[in-house]
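Researcher: Let's try something more involved. This one mixes different molecule types, so please make sure each is placed in the same coordinate frame as the others.
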Amino acid sequence: MDSISARQQLSASKRWVIKIGSALLTDNGRGVNRAAIQNWAGQIGALRRQGIEVVLVSSGAVAAGMDRLGWRRRPESVHQLQAAAAVGQSHLVQVYEHAFGQYDCRTAQILLDHDDLSNRTRYLNARSTLKTLLSLGAVPIINENDTVVTDEIRFGDNDTLGALVANLVEADVLLILTDADGLFTQDPRDNPDAELVREAVATDPRLVAMAGDSRSGLGRGGMSTKVRAAQLAARSGACTVIVGGAIDSVIERVATGENLGTLLLPEADPLAARKRWLAGQLQVRGELVLDAGAARALRSQGKSLLPVGVTAVSGRFHRGELVSCIGPGGEEVARGLVNYDSTEAQRILGQSSAEILELLGYRDDDELIHRDNLILL
Ligand SMILES: Nc1ncnc2c1ncn2[C@@H]1O[C@H](COP(=O)(O)OP(=O)(O)O)[C@@H](O)[C@H]1O
Ligand SMILES: N[C@@H](CCC(=O)OP(=O)(O)O)C(=O)O
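Model: All components are placed in one shared frame. Result:
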C-alpha cells in the first residue's frame, strides 16, 4: 500500500481509538491542561459529525492526582500511586465531561483492568457496553483501573490498553497522541539528527530498535510501548498513527489524510488481518444452516449472508458474537459475526430482509452477517 492510499484510507475509516498520554495531558506535570482537552474535544466532536466513532483512552490520573495533592515527584509506593490515581481520575473525567459538553457530546467513564479483557464473559460485556455507548453517540473515556490493579494484572501502560481496546471494538485506527511529533529513528531528545519515520509496517523489527523509553517522569512506556501497541492493533487490522498531540488541529488533519506523524500499518490487507484475528480470537456460539444458494453466494460471489438463505439456527448467541455457517451438506462454509441474536435469527430465517422490520418491530441491518465480518473456510 503506498503512502497516499494508506493515508486516504484513514479518512474513510469509521471507528477510532484515540490515546492521550500523561505528559501531554498534564502539560508536563502542571495539572490537567484544560485548554488542550477543550481543543481535542472540539476536534473529536468534528470527527463524530463526519460519522467517525471515537473511543478515548486517556492517561493522566496519577499525574493529575499528584498535582492536586501537591506532590512534586512520582511516588514509589503502590498505595500512594493508587491514591493519586483516585484523586486525579475524578478530576480528569470532570474536565472531559465539561469540555465535551460544549460540543453536545456525552461522555462515559470506563475503568478496565487486565481481567476485564482476558476473561471471556467480561471481555464480551465490555465490548457490548462500548458498542452500545458508541451507538448512543457517547464518547467512552477509558483508563486503567489504577486503584485496584496489582502488578500481576497491570497493563502497565496505556499504549497497550489503547491497542487492546482497538482490538476489542474492532477499530480501524489507533491514534496515539504524545509529546513527540512521531516515531523518530532515535530519541529526538538526545539526537538532533534523528529523522521522523513517516510510514512503516508495524511489525518491521527495526522500529523496536529505534524506540526508546519515556523521559518525562510522568509517562510510562515511551516509544517502545507505542510501537508494540501498533503491532497489537495491527492484529485486528487497525492502522496506528503516532503523532504530536499539540500540533494544531492534529486529529482533524490526520482524519483528512494529511501526512503527519508516523503511520504504522498492518502487514496484510487490513480486512484480511482483521478476519484472521476474528477467527483466532472468538469462540463459536452457534450455527446457521444455509441453503445451497446462500452457500454459493458466500463461497463464490463474496456476498453477505441474508436471512432468506438460512434454513435453521442452533445455539444461543448475542448480536456481535461469532457463529458458524453450515452448508446444506453439513460442511462448514464460513464463520462470522452475527448482526442479530439467536432468538431474532429464528424469527427472521427464510425471510427477505424487507420483512425484518415487520417481524421484529425494528431493523438493525439487512444482513445476518456482513461480508466484512465473514471468514470463508
Ligand atoms: N525513537 C523515538 N522517537 C520519538 N520519541 C522517543 C523515541 N524514543 C524515546 N522517545 C521518547 O518517548 C517520549 C514519549 O513517550 P511517553 O513519555 O511515554 O509519552 P506519553 O505520556 O504520551 O505516553 C518522547 O517524549 C521521547 O522522549
Ligand atoms: N493509568 C495511568 C496511565 C499511565 C500511563 O500509561 O501513562 P502514559 O505512558 O502517559 O500513557 C494514569 O492515568 O496515570
